[in-house]
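_Per-residue structure_
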Amino acid sequence: MPSLGIRLRTVFRRLLRLVRRKRRDFRGWLEDTQNFIHFSLLLVVPLLIGLVTWLANSIELLPFLLFPPLVSGAFTLFREPESQYASPRRFVGGMTMGAVCGWVALAVSARYLYRVPPETFQINPGAAAFGVLLTGIVTWALDIEESQAFSTALLVLVSGVTQFIYVLSVFASSLIVVGVFVVWRREIYEQRADYLYQTTHADDQVLVPMRGETADTVATFGAQLAAAHDTGKLVLFSVVTDGEHATDDAVDTDGGAAVRRVTPTGDAATGSAADGQVSTAAADLPAPARETAESLEAHAESLRDRFDISCEVVVVAGEPDDARIAVEAATETNCDLVVTPYQTADGELTRFIRGLFNSTLDVVVLRSNGERTSWRRLLVPIKHYGEVAHAMLDFAERLTGETSYVSVCHSIDSEGDRRTAEAMVADLVEPFERAIETRVTTSPLESFLSVHADNYDLTILGSSTDRTVVSRIIDAPTFEQLKELDCDIAIVHRG
């Protein structure tokens, strides 16, 4: 029987894994802009109103009746931070001018319309109507129309404070709310990609298994992804089948590339790596392994010169179709992304690619005829918002230059879904610096791609590995349904 200490450590490790998984899931949930906004609403708006209330109690300036329009106005600001009504000028100016118009309406009605003293709790209908009318005219003329302006115009009639104090309190409180909103929008909302979307910082250490006829093209593709970040690195990886073709030791070629033998040990899916690499002379390598390393090094040198990135070469002995070897090589070289050629066997993805999809690494599978070495026109079909969609756009942005363009498309079932779809796509592309074209179509996605994909150099699709097995059987992944396209296809999997 295991000791109590061992059992406690086991429970602790399981709890730690659970916490990490929930934290990762929560981060992914927050990457949806709408979820992020709602979460911000739950945190910021109550705290903001609490702050204004505390100030009101401290300085006895703000009438409590002002709080309802203040809360609803704050909700509008944070709920639609990109809308025309999320304007600090409109918010402060509208609410303040509404209070001024209400003040004017009260003064006029007190002189000409009231039959009872205006201090009593009785509102003249003419005063209310005149205040709303005047507010509408003034805010329209000044282009500061704001729904809360009509509330402040009416509340002055029952505020119980002098009109000047009321107008001043409206201006001060709206200024506080707008100040917090501006800071939130500039420092948090607009910068959310820097600390929420991990694809912005990750996937810059790229391992490329040099397999198949399009390996050189795939290596160029991987190098371009890595070169987009200052810390980018490319590792060209190859496997020799015969155990005599590689040593158990790590060596350096003349070009400075590391040549390693990696033995698959432990759980490859969690990234366990082999230990104990010892330097030896390049001349000690068997001829086939040396020839493979030299060939990869020549290609690596070309990529170094073209993209100005660090480039290593890794040669291992083992079974070429064993994805565990590639996973462990990626772990040992600190790579967080594998870019591999598209390969099939009997109409299905090869065992090697399926093994990569089962690992914790991010994977991009490039289906190419090997003719293209640059990709300027990119199409990114999006089925739904999420971590994979953002990763696809992040990769697209890395591949494009100043003269390139990216187009995002989304398919809907009916015109009734268009507005929601357009808002979703707009939220998705908003964090990216470059201009991105957005398209919403009622055509099925596969039909749309069959017609339009040939106008692009590259189409980036999701791998659908986040779906259940049953779901993939009922509705096959899009890349499996697209057999004949002139453009290259990149299939993105998030580990």
Summary: The mean pLDDT is 79. Residues 198-351 form a domain with the Rossmann fold fold (CATH 3.40.50.620). The chain has three domains: 33-192, 198-351, 374-495. The CA atoms of residues 338 and 363 lie 5 Å apart.
